[in-house]
Amino acid sequence: MAKENQIPALNFFGGEPLLNPRVFSMLQTALENDFGLILATNCRPLDNETIFEKFLEVTRKHKERMFIATARDKFH
Predict the structure, then answer these.
(1) How, if at all, do strands 9-12 and 66-69 pair?
(2) Which tens digit of pLDDT belongs to each residue from 16-38?
(3) Among 4, 16, 55, 76, which one is most buried in terms of CB atoms within 10 A?
């Protein structure tokens, strides 16, 4: 639907997207379909080596189309 409506980028946010069990398949699908990607995360899940490796596996080839927004306050 996003592709049909020529939406250039998808935003993953709300709670912590990296904790969603389907996030990597959603990221992969978005990136393989040439969408830009905005990921709002506190990055804490990336402390887990398995999650970090999976994140790199899915996103490594597409980093020029990704923007990662992180919080810098004491609550995140």
Answers:
(1) unpaired
(2) 999 999 999 999 999 999 999 99
(3) 55
CA of 65: how far to CAs of 51, 53, 59, in Å?
Answer: 20, 19, 9
DSSP for 20-31, please give it. STTHHHHHHHHH
Task: Provide the whole-model pTM.
Answer: 0.84
Residue 76 clears pLDDT 70, i.e. is over it:
no
Residue with tokens 């830009």: 36
Query: Following DSSP, what letter does each residue of 28-61 receive, concatenated?
Result: HHHHHTT-EEEEE---GGGGSHHHHHHHHHHHGG
